[in-house]
Amino acid sequence: MLRKVLQAFEEADGPVKLADLSRELGVEPGALEGMVDFWVRKGRIQASGQGSGLFACTTTDCGTCGDVNSCPLVARLPQMYAIAQDSPQQQMDA
Predict the structure, then answer these.
(1) Is-contact 40 46, C-beta < 8 A?
(2) Cα(48)–Cα(1) distance, rounded to whole angstroms?
(3) What is the distance in angstroms between the CA of the first residue and the CA of the last residue of the chain?
(4) What φ, ψ does residue 36 adopt, rounded to 5°?
(5) Does residue 58 contact residue 75 with C-beta atoms inside 8 Å?
(6) Distance between CA atoms of 32 and 86, rounded to whole angstroms?
(7) Which residues contact 53 (CB under 8 A, 6 or more apart)?
(8) Core-most of 24, 31, 40, 82, by most CB within 10 Å?
(9) With pLDDT > 70 as the criterion, what percentage of the chain qualifies?
(10) Average pLDDT of the residues in 19-25
(11) Which residue has the higher pLDDT, 87 or 69?
(12) What is the pLDDT of residue 41?
């Protein structure tokens, strides 16, 4: 299954949301996250700049809260991953 996860990233046209990949592969999100973390540690997959789990305020200049984690006006962007630009496999293929 680990290989299927990596293959899905290799075949993707760009960054992949874990929720989408979970549905596509029929894998529980928590289990998939562990598999993706494995490939991240191996240097084959990396967090994408698009929606990389950062917080984005949905309003401007509200100035009402100091804690991003508890503010109801802040949305957490979905974590996205992609094949690492300098993954070991790409280095071998070069």
Answers:
(1) yes
(2) 22
(3) 26
(4) -65, -40
(5) yes
(6) 23
(7) 47, 76, 77, 78, 79
(8) 82
(9) 59
(10) 93
(11) 69
(12) 94
Residue 51 pLDDT: 47
Domain annotation for the chain: domains and CATH numbers: 2-93 (1.10.10.10)
- Output the pLDDT for position 35: 95
Q: What average pLDDT does this structure show over 47-51?
A: 64
The answer on pLDDT for 18 being more than 70 is yes
Tokens of 48: 């994408």
Per DSSP, the residues of the chain read: -HHHHHHHHHH-SS-EEHHHHHHHHT--HHHHHHHHHHHHHTTSEEE-STT-S-EEESSSS----S-TTT-TTEEEPPPEEEE-TT-HHHHHH-
State how far the alpha carbon of 90 is from the alpha carbons of 14, 15, 85, in Å: 16, 17, 8
Predicted TM-score (pTM) of this structure: 0.63
